[in-house]
């Protein structure tokens, strides 16, 4: 394996990991407040088609990303109203949201299939981007890659070091006790759900504007589910999200590089590698109940209603 191939592989891994980082970071914040949103797949698809459609018709990727963010928040708001206000079951509602997002994105994008947009521009930093090996590996990505890394660091700091993070964690651990001392439990949960939806929408838009700058029905290909698994893999800690996202991103990219190198393995097996890796990692983690319960919010998936 020469250095050029290694750089190409690692750079592709960063791109493949970015939508997972965005979606799983938003989901982690929501879950730390006690809300389990299984609708990430549907939200990412709606974000992908919204971002692509607006970018195609306006020529502005910035407007496309803003549209994806708002579309993700709208889907999350629908989920929040059903779960937080109407007290529906979180698991069933999340699954229904995924099915709704799959259908809605297919309907909205039916006339967009086959069209393309210019991919998100890569940054070029004087001197740094031109360095051999290090330049293309660290200083030649688009802004969303760097923003996703900063987002994880900011989320970790917010949850661990700020009053807002303390409130979110308190609501996730003991919502009734938090409510008894005056914390706005429902409002905080709404805020975390909306933030999670916004980031999932951005993750979907990254797929249609950067990784594959076109609209393809069902283009998330299970990434929403992988993002959900990553939160468990990270044991509800932001720092573990990067490891999980880049691990799964590398496995995803490996299938394409393996086919390009002529590896004598059936393409169907290479295509299932990311999902197989997800299952293996979760099985290994879940073998020890103490590990899986280490940072899991006590009230995760449980509805709250003020007395």
UniProtKB/TrEMBL annotation:
Domain of life: Bacteria
Membrane topology: Multi-pass membrane protein
Localisation: Cell membrane
Chief localisation class: membrane
Segment forming the signal sequence: none
Keywords (A to Z) from UniProt: Cell membrane, Membrane, Transmembrane, Transmembrane helix
Family annotation (InterPro entries): ABC_transp_permease
Transmembrane segments: 6-23, 35-56, 62-84, 91-113, 133-159, 190-209, 269-286
Coiled coil region boundaries: none
Protein's recorded name: ABC transporter permease
Organism from which the protein derives: Telluria mixta
Taxonomic lineage from the root: Bacteria, Pseudomonadati, Pseudomonadota, Betaproteobacteria, Burkholderiales
């Amino acid at each position: 394996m020469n250095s050029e191939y290694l750089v190409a592989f690692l750079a592709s891994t960063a791109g493949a990991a970015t939508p997972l980082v965005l979606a799983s970071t938003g989901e982690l914040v929501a879950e730390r407040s006690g809300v389990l949103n299984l609708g990430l797949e549907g939200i990412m698809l709606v974000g992908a088609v919204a971002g692509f459609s607006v970018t195609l018709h306006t020529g502005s990727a910035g407007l496309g990303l803003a549209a994806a963010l708002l579309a993700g928040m709208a889907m999350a708001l629908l989920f929040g109203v059903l779960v937080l206000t109407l007290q529906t079951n979180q698991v069933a509602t999340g699954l229904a949201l995924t099915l709704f997002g799959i259908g809605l994105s297919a309907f909205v994008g039916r006339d967009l299939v086959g069209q393309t947009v210019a991919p998100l521009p890569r940054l070029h930093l004087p001197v740094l981007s031109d360095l051999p090996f290090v330049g293309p590996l660290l200083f030649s990505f688009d802004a969303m890659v760097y923003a996703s890394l900063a987002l994880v660091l900011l989320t970790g700091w917010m949850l661990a070091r700020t009053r807002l993070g303390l409130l979110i964690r308190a609501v996730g651990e003991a919502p009734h006790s938090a409510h008894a001392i005056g914390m706005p439990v429902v409002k905080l949960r709404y805020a975390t759900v909306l933030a999670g939806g916004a980031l999932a929408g951005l993750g979907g838009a990254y797929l249609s504007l950067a990784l594959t700058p076109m609209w393809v029905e069902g283009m998330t290909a299970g990434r929403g589910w992988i993002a959900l698994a990553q939160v468990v893999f990270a044991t509800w800690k932001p720092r573990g999200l990067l490891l999980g996202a880049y691990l799964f991103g590398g496995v995803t990219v490996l299938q394409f590089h393996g086919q390009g190198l002529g590896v004598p393995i059936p393409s169907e097996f290479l295509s299932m590698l990311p999902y197989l890796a997800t299952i293996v990692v979760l099985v290994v983690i879940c073998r020890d109940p103490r590990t899986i319960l280490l940072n899991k919010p006590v009230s995760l998936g449980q509805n709250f209603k003020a007395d």
